[in-house]
Amino acid sequence: MTTRRTYHHGDLRQAVLAAALDVIAADGPGALSLRDLARRAGVSHAAPAHHFKDRTGLLTAIAAQGYELLAEALTGAPDLRERGVRYVRFAAAHPAHFQVMFRPDLHHADDPELLAARERASVELRAGVTALGPGTAAPRDTGIAAWSLAHGFATLLLTHNLDAPLDGRDPGEVFRALTGLLGSAQLADATGE
After folding, report:
1. What are the residues whose beta carbons fall under 8 Å from the beta carbon of 32, sequence distance 6 or more?
2. Domains annotated on the chain, with CATH
3. CA 69, CA 67: separation in Å to the nearest integer?
4. Number of neighbouring beta carbons within 10 Å of residue 111
5. pLDDT tens, 91-124?
6. pLDDT per residue over 47-87, tens digit each?
7. Among 25, 46, 62, 64, which residue has the least CB neighbours within 10 Å?
8. Quick check: 34 and 49 in contact, CB under 8 A?
9. Geometric angle at alpha carbon 55, from 99 and 95, rounded to 5°
């Protein structure tokens, strides 16, 4: 007589999210399948749908979780440069979240949890520009420039385009040094040196 092993999962939502993050980190968001994730979690193929409804719902939950983690990472950073360093380190620590967060084609753009998490992260990002003070020329443009620099560096890092140039160095420290170089160039331009 054979017995069928049944499995009860204590926190299916977190188990599916964790499995999904593993798949995304290894093979990208296109490789996600709720059926495969259910198999990995040891539950029926329909079980993940109770929490996420569909694949887009799962990706929306991942994006929301990512924005929450990003907001936490940025909270308390003393200046704009350090927010950039933390942004790069967040991307390195959470590559699967990072891949999904900035792909609005993958999630429900009107999801309240996603909107709230994205706003919280945006507030933390903008706080770095606000900390520069009222004399900052074009604060919105400064914010776009800073975000572009950090996001571009993080994207290059995650796609392994910086492996050789970094040569094993800490990405956050390299980013900090690069922004220092840019600041020095800007100061030299302003003083005519």
Report:
1. 20, 23, 24, 55, 58, 59
2. 8-52 (1.10.10), 59-191 (1.10.357.10)
3. 5
4. 17
5. 999 999 999 999 999 999 999 999 999 999 999 9
6. 787 788 899 999 999 999 999 999 999 999 998 999 999 99
7. 46
8. yes
9. 15
